[in-house]
Amino acid sequence: MKVLIVGSGGREHAIAASVAKSSRVDKIYCAPGNAGIGQIAECVPIGAMEFDKLAAFAKEKEIDFTIIGMDDPLVGGVVDVFEAEGLTVFGPRKNAAILEGSKAFSKDLMKKYKIPTAAYETFDDPKKAMEYLKTAKMPIVLKADGLALGKGVLICNTLEEALAGVKEIMEDKKFGSAGNHMVVEEFMTGREVSVLSFVDGKTIKIMSSAQDHKRAKDGDQGLNTGGMGTFSPSPFYTAEVDEFCKKYIYQATVDAMAAEGREFKGIIFFGLMLTEEGPKVLEYNARFGDPEAQVVLPRMKNDIIDVMEACVNGTLDQIDLQFEENAAVCVVLASDGYPVSYEKGFPIKGFGKFHDEEGYYCFHAGTALNDDGEFVTNGGRVLGVTAKGSDLKEARANAYKATEWITFENKYMRSDIGKAIDEA
Ligand code: AMP
Ligand code: GLY
Question: Whose atoms come closest to the Cα of 175: which ligand?
Fold first, then answer.
C-alpha cells in the first residue's frame, strides 16, 4: 500500500521509520518532510496546512492511508477535508482535535467528567483576570487558550509577574489569537510523565511511558524548547500510577469525548504530573509527542499500520499492543543558541554508524541538503539521536556515545538527558 505522512520533524521521521518496517507498505510519501525523511520516503513540497493540495495529491497518487503527525493541521480540520474526499486518514477530526487546540475546552471537559487536573478559572476579559489574580495564591500558571507552539504557558512567582503575564497574553497578544482566552491554573509540583495512546473512538491502548526534557539547559534551566531529549519507559510510571490513570483518566477521557459527540480517533497524548495527591492531567495533545515518538515507536513491536488502521476502523480492541522489554533514550542535537537565535547551513558528518537494526537511530528534525548533496543544519533542533539498551542506563550510555559520532559546527546538546533515572 501507499502511505502519506504529513509533517516535517523528528516525530514524522520516527513515524516514517516505523511505517517503513511494515511489510504491507511499498511506498511512503511525506509532505513536506525533511532531508532525513527523504532517505526513506519521497518528500513532496506541500505544506502541512495546504489541506486541499494534500487531499488532491492523495487522490492523484491513490494513497491508501494518510497519517497526520502535527497538531496544527489536526486542529485546523485536515482530517475532515480528507474524509470528505473519501480518503482514509489517521487522526482526530476537528471537533475532537480541540482536546489539544483549546486549553479552556480541555479543562472544562476534565471538570465536567471529574478527571483529575489542576484547579483553574478561564477568562476572556484581562481586567477580570487581573482582579482574580490579586486574590490568588502564588506561584500560579497562565495559559493562552489556543495553540502557541508549546510556549503559551507562563509560570508566575509573584503577583507582578502574573499581571505582566496577563498583559502579554491577552493585551499584547504575544501568542496571537491564542491569547483571546486564557486559563489561570493552580501551580502543581511533581514529576512529569508523557503517556501516549492509540484510540479508536471507544477503545484506548496505552503505549510505553516516556519523559521529556523541555528546558534548553542542563538541570532544567534555561528557556522552554520543543524538547531536548526523552527517555522511555519512565521508571516513575509505576504499576500504581498506571492503575490510577486507567481508572480515572484514560478511558474517562475517551468516554467523555464520545459523550460530547466528539468521538476521538488517533493519538491522545496525556501530559501527566505525578503530584502528592496522585496523577493529574497537565495537558492533552492530539498527536505523538516530539521527541517522545523517537523513543516510544522504536520499541513498539506491532506493525504501526495494523494499529492505526484499527483506530480508523474502530477495531482497536482486537489489537494486542506490545512493546519491547528494553529502554530507549533520545538526545536532541541542536544549533547553539536555540530556542532564541542560531546559525544554520553547517555540514553534518557521521551518519554512517547508525543502523536501526542495531538499535541506533538518527532522526532528522531540522536538516536540508546543500547543492553538493550534503546534509546541512537547517533548524534549531537538528537531529534526535536515539539508542536502545537493555535498561535505561545502558540506553543512555549508548545514546551519548552515538552523539559523538555526529559532528557539525555549533552543535549543542544537554548532557543530562535521563539523569533523573538515577533517582528512581
Ligand atoms: P503545557 O503546555 O500545558 O504542558 O505546559 C507546559 C509546561 O508547563 C508543562 O510541561 C509543565 O512543566 C508546566 N506546567 C503547565 N501547567 C502547570 C501547572 N499547573 N503546574 C505546574 N507546572 C505546569
Ligand atoms: N514533547 C512535548 C510535545 O510534543 O508536546
Answer: 1
